[in-house]
Amino acid sequence: MMLTAHTKLRWIYFALTILTITAGLLTRSSYMPRPSFLATYAGDTLWALMIFWAFAFVAPRSASWKIALAALAFCFAIEFSQLYQADWANAIRSHTIGALVFGRGFLASDLICYSTGIFIGWLLQKCMAAGHQNIK
């Protein structure tokens, strides 16, 4: 059974998503010593990178810039949603999974982390595409 190029890409994006989730959880873990700068910003940067890979998985034929723009809009929407502090929303955010997905409170610095993570994803995807072109 031959896999199509887009199916192969999906597997790559799936693996990158899982690796990024693992790295992000490690940045929040007490098992891995890290400088305070990384402890503060790496998790949010990796979260946005994971969103980029997930969007690339869903739409492997889309242009890199479209994936980046969609991922950035999603991440920014989640961050700005944290300005909404209704009891039901805070109840979701009070659980570990809810906090990991929706965050707890708005931080402008998170917008910079998200932009950085998505830029890294865009750049890596462009490098992967360039490497693929050189292999042909």
From TrEMBL:
Database matches in InterPro entries: DUF2809
Keywords: Membrane, Transmembrane, Transmembrane helix
Protein name, per record: DUF2809 domain-containing protein
Pfam family name, one: DUF2809
Originating organism: Persicirhabdus sediminis
Residues passing through the membrane, by range: 12-31, 37-58, 65-85, 105-124
